[in-house]
Design goal:
The protein is of the alpha/beta class and about 425 residues long. About 30% of the residues lie in helices and about 15% in strands. The strands form 3 sheets. Strands 3-2-1-4-5-6-17-18 form an 8-stranded mixed β-sheet, with helices on both faces. Strands 8-9-7-12-13-16-14-15 form an 8-stranded mixed β-sheet. The protein has a two-stranded antiparallel ribbon with strand order 10-11. Strand 12, helix 10 and strand 13 form a beta-alpha-beta unit. Helix 4 packs across helix 6.
Length: about 425
């Protein structure tokens, strides 16, 4: 019978990262089931060393006996240790050039690398993610900076009462605050310039659901995209409600050949399609983008689209929360990612120039690429609940031969990127990037 593996929780090396892969209460669950846990000491982590110690972990400067090392962000290349198992967001799945040195180091040092992004079900749906909190924080920050922008233009609005996500002490406190703002909206309503107030959301995944979880605190009325024109025509006086529109694929894109939208055809011949959002953008106040994008697919919001639409009335779009953060990707005017201290920039369609902040004329964009880190305690608690059983299964079986041990869940075996100095079968496509 194999001995259990010792689990180690890594100290994060990126200054803004306060999250933890396993929270103290889940460490206690592991210890109670016979798994020893080492925690690298950190003053940056949202949970203190004493919380982990109280729950049965051994606090160390560097992991000693631990073989299964869990972290959040990818470790620095010079920090990775030979013959260990790493569970992290390695950011190698797309062959990202900046992380190929890490991948090479894992091969050279005989590291078993398990990437959280690769833990998926039979349908390819991710099972381990921070997406919900990316959506929550992204929607909160979008409302906050939209409110500040409108205030700077002399437009009174209820969203000046919304704080950036990182200023709320907990998700519960955030929800209480936004529910109170919802009561104010119902009582006082929006000024004429902002009425009807409509938020458009792209995507149906975890990020989208997180964004809608926040917006639903205002008890919004959902509009179907096909009813947009009729709604705008007859609902101009509906100032005491928030409205939302969630775009499906068939509403986001149209055929260049003026045929109907067929998803199978779209996948086969994406160049035969173009964005249909120019139909809706003139009428919404905020667009929150959460969809995955690849360069072979058409963009949703192009510079040309913005440049053209802003020349005509109406054009009400003031803000885009680009939660996917693909530089010059689906939202083409996202020319860079942003950070908590400089979260937004504005694109001026007249001058074709960008300005940091929200006070300039044009469409303001939020593109913070580590949004879940704004609520580290709640995000960590959510994430830890997703991985704790996987960590237990690997540690309890006491083996580094993850792909060959059929008792370990299949989704973990398939998430192995490197093992025994080689790329796994499921990750062999990465060879061309090395």
């Amino acid at each position: 019978m194999r001995d259990h593996l010792v689990v180690g929780i890594l100290k994060e090396t990126k200054g803004f990262e306060h999250r933890a892969p396993l929270v103290p209460s889940d460490v206690e669950l592991l210890v109670d089931r016979g798994i020893s846990v080492e925690v690298e000491s950190s003053t940056n982590r949202i949970f203190s060393d004493s919380e982990y110690k109280k729950n049965g972990a051994l606090i160390v400067d560097k992991v000693r006996k631990a073989t299964l090392l869990a972290g959040i962000k990818e470790p620095r290349v010079h920090d990775v240790r030979s013959n260990k198992i790493y569970m992290v967001f390695s950011h190698t799945a797309k062959g990202q050039r900046h992380n190929m040195p890490l991948l090479r180091a894992c091969l050279k040092k005989n590291i078993t690398l398990i990437d959280y992004e690769q833990i998926v079900d039979l349908y390819g749906t991710r099972l381990v993610y921070f997406g919900r909190f990316a959506g929550i924080c992204g929607m909160v920050d979008s409302l906050h900076y939209f409110g500040r922008k409108m205030e700077s233009k002399g437009n009174d609005n209820p969203f000046t009462m919304v704080q950036p996500a990182h200023q709320y002490e907990s998700l519960e406190a955030l929800k209480r605050s936004l529910e109170e703002i919802g009561h104010e909206i119902k009582k006082r309503g929006f000024i004429k310039n902002l009425s009807p107030f409509i938020v458009g959301i792209t995507g149906r995944g975890n990020v989208s659901r997180g964004a809608q979880e926040v917006l639903d605190l205002f008890n919004p009325v959902e509009i179907h995209p096909r009813d947009m024109n009729e709604f705008i025509l007859h609902q101009k006086k509906q100032k005491h409600r928030v409205y939302k529109i969630v775009f499906l694929r068939e509403e986001k894109f149209r055929s260049r050949k003026q045929k109907g939208f067929y998803f199978e055809e779209y996948l086969k011949h994406p160049k035969d399609f173009e964005s249909n959002l120019d139909t809706y953008l003139p009428f919404i106040n905020i667009l929150v983008h959460t969809s995955y994008w690849d360069a072979k697919y058409p963009r949703l919001v192009t510079k040309k689209m913005i440049n053209t639409l802003t020349k005509h009335d109406p054009f009400r779009l003031e803000f885009i929360g680009d939660l996917s953060c693909d530089i010059k990707g689906s939202i083409e005017i996202t020319h860079k990612t942003t950070s908590r201290d400089r979260p937004v920039f504005t694109y001026n369609p007249t001058t074709k120039r960008y300005t940091d902040g929200y006070r300039s004329r044009g469409v303001t964009v939020l593109a913070v690429d580590n949004l879940p880190a704004e609520m580290p305690r709640d995000a960590s608690d959510d994430f830890s609940g997703l991985i704790r059983e996987y960590v237990y299964q690997i540690a309890a079986h006491g083996t580094k031969e993850i792909t060959k041990h059929l008792a370990i869940p299949a989704e973990i075996r398939k998430a192995v990127v490197t093992q025994n100095g080689e790329l796994s079968r499921h990750s062999s496509y990465l060879r061309k990037y090395l």
